[in-house]
Amino acid sequence: MTASASSFSSSQGVQQPSIYSFSQITRSLFLSNGVAANDKLLLSSNRITAIVNASVEVVNVFFEGIQYIKVPVTDARDSRLYDFFDPIADLIHTIDMRQGRTLLHCMAGVSRSASLCLAYLMKYHSMSLLDAHTWTKSRRPIIRPNNGFWEQLINYEFKLFNNNTVRMINSPVGNIPDIYEKDLRMMISM
Predominant location of this chain? Predict the structure, then answer.
């Protein structure tokens, strides 16, 4: 991974990895589910200054002093999240440069928000898609972008680096990212 260690340090008081509430990805970027995104105590204790809601089904409670951004995308294979990769990555970066903190969330903090996080790490931390996924999964083990988002992330990685570190492969359950091939083989052999 090419990002500096300081940009990934945890703040004091944040335990990692956190599956059900906030997961700190970088010093200024967090992932969560929709319930945690509406928890005033969690937001204030983690000094969140911006919330990106990557869902159509979660309604945010608006708290003073927090900027809210809506990315109205469903968690479906044919949903177009790619168009939001650059604008949301740029926003997260701008907030970080101003010493702010961003919370990305969707319904469960598994697919849509995780995909936006991976795009940000590729663009602003020069991480390959594979490294971005490995890092983010180490911080939030439940991430699992849907296959349509994987295809879009693979295209985005190619746009950024003219190279791919993850590819879609054919499997008994359809096309999947090659990083899931080992897990699938283990499941099938059981």
Answer: cytoplasm
